[in-house]
Amino acid sequence: MNINAATVFCGSKPGEDPSYVFAAEKLGKILANAGITLVYGGGNKGIMGAIANACLEANGKVIGIIPELLLAWEAQHEGLTELIVTDSMHARKLLLYEKCDVAIVLPGGMGTLDELFEMLTWNNLKIHNKKVYILNINGYYNALIQLLDAMDARGFMYESWRTRLIECNSVEGLSQFLISESV
Description:
Number of domains: 1
Structural class: alpha/beta
CATH topology: Rossmann fold
CATH class: Alpha Beta
Oligomer: single chain
Radius of gyration: 15 Å
Number of strands: 7
Helix content: 40-55%
CATH architecture: 3-Layer(aba) Sandwich
């Protein structure tokens, strides 16, 4: 599979651990250098802004997709390759899914989890079959991974979640997955 575009789900806040922003910046540069278009939520704050700015600084292509109701809240990025404004969160998520070949989840809050679980659910229902990677920087998603394991162990999964979600503990590890997928 050739990866032309990656949708990245992440926080519009930076979080308290600077390694989250650092990882986003590193990933933004890797995507740009690999010629992979970054598709993301369109904000200019937090981890969102960090990955977009790093990708742009490395001469990458960045498409932001933001609903009209979040224009002021997330401080839409004014310097993107393309900014698409939607009329709803649902329309935003649909475009985020449609425009990517793979999805990558970085640290974030409830919105990030909403996007992750909708992507996984659509994958499970065979609406799409796109790979989803979770970047578990400094164990940020350990509790979520434990919950997914518990859901699986208690019989609430149709198949192991690990067939749908690939855990990576470093940007370098994620980069290796992306390179192997593009060959």
